[in-house]
Amino acid sequence: MSNSPKQKLEVPPEISRSWLLLSARSTDKFDSARASRTDQLILDLEDGVDPNYKNEAREDVLEWFAGGGSAWVRINPRSTEFWAGDVDDLAGVKGLQGVMLAKTEFPEEVSETFDRLGGNTPVIPLIESALGIESAVAIAQAKGVFRLAFGSGDYRRDTGTEASDLAMAYPRSRLTTASAIAGLTGPIDGPTVSKSHPVIRDQSETAVSLGLTGKLCLDVNQLPVINECLSPPPADVGWARDFIAEFDARGRIVRDGSDLPRLKRAERIDHLARAFGIEPVRY
Questions:
Q1: What is the pLDDT of residue 281?
Q2: DSSP letter (8 states) at residue 93
Q3: Digit-coded pLDDT (tens) for 95-130
Q4: Where is each HpcH/HpaI aldolase/citrate lyase domain found (predicted)?
Q5: What's the rounded Cα separation, in Å, for the pair 37 and 234?
Q6: Which residues of the chain carry a pLDDT beneath 70?
Q7: pLDDT at 255 (0 to 100)
C-alpha cells in the first residue's frame, strides 16, 4: 500500500463548499492556504486590508499571481475609491479565478465590474445589507453573476438582527430563492466566527437546511467540518448509486411520478460525491 499523501481534489467553483477568506496582507500564508483543504481561496483586498495599504496589498496579490498563484479576490465595493484600481489592475491577470464584489446592493454594480474586468471573469456579489437582500433577485440576474454570497456580519450590523438561526433564516432564504430564480448554484453562507467545531457544524447544517451550498470561512481548522457538512452523507451516496443502477437496469422506464424527481436527486448526489471524493456506505 502506498504511503504517498493523497492528492488534493480540485473542486469546481460551481459546486465548491468551502471558501477560505485570507487577508491580502498575509503574503506568508498564500501558498499554505492554497494547499489547504479549502475548495477555493479568496484573497481579501477589502475588510482584511487597512485603507492605507490597499495599493500595496493589491501589488502583493499581483506578484503572487505572476509567480504562478491562483485564487479568487474580494475587491472593494463599487461605491469606494478603491474599486477602480482593483478591477483595472486585475483585468486579464493570469491566476485570477474570479472576484467577490463586497457590499453589493445593485445589479449595475455587478455588471459594471464584470465589463471592466473584460467580460469573462466570474463575479460573486457579496450581499451584506438590508437593501442588498431586498435586491437579491435583480442582483442574481445581473450580467456576470456566478453565485451569490451572504455577508452575514455586516447584515446584522445594518439591521440590528441577532445571530440566531431564526433571525438569519429570512436573508438566507432570500438568497436561496434568488439563486433558484436566476438558475444559479445555491448561495455561499457567511463565515462562522467561533472556532468551536460543534458550533461550526451546527451553523453549517442550518445553512444546508436553508438551501445554501457553500460557506465562507476564516480559519483552516474550520475546513474539515465545513466540507463534511456541505457534502452528501456517504449513506445518501450509497442510496443514489443504487437507485441509478436500478433505474438503468430496468431500461430507464418511469414507473410513477416519483421516479424522475428521485432520479434528479440521485444524479445530483452522485455528481457531488464524485467531485468531493466521497465513497458510498450501504446499510
A1: 83
A2: -
A3: 999 999 999 999 999 999 999 999 999 999 999 999
A4: 19-218
A5: 19
A6: 1-7, 283
A7: 87
- Give the bridge partners for 40, in sequence order: 19
Strand (E) or helix (H) holding 23 = strand 18-23
Q: How far apart are CA 204 and CA 234, in angstroms?
A: 17
Q: What cell was used for 259?
A: 421516479
Question: What local confidence, expressed as pLDDT, does residue 18 receive?
Answer: 98
CA 14 from centre of chain: 8
Beta bridge partners of 71: 96
Whole-number Å distance between alpha carbons of 101 and 113: 8
CA distances from 197 to 11, 99, 234 (A): 23, 29, 20
Helices (H), the chain: 30-34, 54-66, 83-90, 107-116, 130-134, 136-140, 152-159, 165-182, 197-209, 223-229, 234-249, 259-276
Q: Is 119 left (phi over 0), alpha (psi -120 to 50) or beta?
A: left
Residue 228: half-sphere exposure toward Cβ, Cα within 13 Å:
11
Q: How far apart are CA 128 and CA 47, in angstroms?
A: 13
Q: Strand 71-75 vs strand 96-101: parallel, antiparallel, or unpaired? A: parallel
> Could you identify the residue written with the cell 434528479?
264
- Helix, strand, or coil (residue 214): strand
Confidence (pLDDT) at 6: 53
CB 223 within 8 A of CB 20: yes
The residues spanned by each domain of the chain are: 13-229, 234-276
What are the residues whose beta carbons fall under 8 Å from the beta carbon of 96, sequence distance 6 or more?
65, 70, 71, 72, 73, 90, 121
Assess contact for 18 and 214: CB atoms under 8 A: yes
Top CATH class of 13-229 equals alpha beta
List the grid coordinates of 144.
456576470
- DSSP, collapsed to helix, strand or coil, labels residue 110 as helix
